[in-house]
Amino acid sequence: LISPFALWGTSMVAMKGVVAHTTPLLLGSLRLLPAGLLLVAWAASTGRAQPKTLTAWAWILAFALADGACFQGFLAEGLTKTSAGLGSVIIDSQPLTVAILASVLFGERLNAVGVFGLVLGVLGLCMLELPGDSLAETVSLIASGAWRPELPSGLGGEGGLANSGEFWMLLAAQSMAIGTVMVRYVTKHVDPVIATGWHMVLGGIVLSVLAASFGEQLTHLSAEDWAAMAYVSVLGGAVSYGAFFYQASRGSLTALSSLTFLTPVFASLGGFYAFGEMLSPMQLLGGLVTLSAVWAINHK
User: Fold this and answer.
1) Rounded distance, CA 160 to CA 67, Å?
2) Would you say 241 and 39 are in contact if contact means Cβ atoms under 8 Å apart?
3) What does pTM read for this prediction?
4) 160: which residues sit within 8 A by CB, 6+ positions away?
């Protein structure tokens, strides 16, 4: 059950060296297209039925636009305008949106311990991914009453929403949350694994077209880069997305989505083993807080 989140976290480490040699949109298409084709081929070889109706294809296309193209596109835009740490906190906080949508649409309910777990999970993410001095300074300002959030001035312009990395990251998180909830409707018309594969193929095509329209080109990738992308696409794409959306089609969406909090934990462990990146005491504590949050959300 936790394998998708371990694979997503370690995929972030694998992509670390590749992102400098290509662009975000092309990186997203390189991840989605091969993974989707592989997943569709595997599903077909096991006898899973292909979509047969226009309704099924319409749901797959909507799924592809929300979870594939929009999520990756908003993420790519946000990465150019915000820090990786803050962006990751916003992205990985999407279980909050999933919990609300699952409650409204499917009647899923969390007890008081579960609600506390959601809040605890976001706190753990902040401790894991934000610089310790920045986090301590913000807490100090809030405690003293001197903290004043900077609100965007309209949509465009230098201080507008369009130039706010946090805004694009928030849109990416909501796209991922909507895709997670949408799979329940998609799988009423098509097999979940087939739907996952085709939504990755279609989403990858959209990202490729967007990259071409912006004049983005694939620069030289080394053998190590291609090996990393093979891991990211096969294990961090086909296997992880297939397993995640298969589980999302049948179990508790809130409980499943809460495991997203584990992604940065695995990413931090992968960074330590692959690159010798050391974890601070606050990050170690953040990992424990995050694990406690997952337990609380899934506590019956």
Assistant:
1) 25
2) yes
3) 0.79
4) 152, 153, 154
